[in-house]
Amino acid sequence: MADDHGHDGGGDDHDHEHHHHDVETLGAAVVTVTSSRGLDDDPAGDAIAAAFTDAGHEVTTRELIPDDYDRVQATLKHLAGRDDVDAVVSTGGTGVTPDDVTAEAAQPLFGKTLPGFGELFRRLSYDEIGTKVVGTRAVAGVVAGTPVFCLPGSENAARLGAEEIIVPEAGHLSGLAGRET
Fold first, then answer.
1. Domains of the chain and any CATH numbers
2. pTM for the structure as a whole
3. I need a labelling partner for 136 at 20 to 30 A (CA). Which of 57, 103, 118, 122 fits?
4. Is 119 helix (H, G, I), strand (E, B) or coil?
5. pLDDT class of 20 with cuts at 50, 70, 90
């Protein structure tokens, strides 16, 4: 019987150790989904960008787009297909209001889903916001060989997701997802 504890198939336990396929320096795309802010007033996007740059990665592009299904979907698809983008992170549009459409727009693009991302994000968020965590629909998956993460729009949520989960794992996930078969 195979010993599978939910790892990527490598069969070994690891705590952020380097693997030969990991992307060392990531090019990250940060997308803020909002109808009420501008790039000059984007604390959640700033927190995500800072998490990448503080870890020695590059933010290759930042975009601010409205809460619109078609626009969110087209933007995520376009950015995931860019050669200079190894990971896409969006913030905003993952709640339960009628204009929160990021999860619905992203999920059809996912060739593979990463359910552990949303599960871990909600587990970590529970320590900060308690049972309100049931209202967050953070999701992640792989689009065209690129990991795409969709975070809530609050600065605290963006910082938590980027610093505690995405930046530590994006290089590994990007290397695996983009690997030639």
1. 27-177 (3.40.980.10)
2. 0.88
3. 57
4. helix
5. low
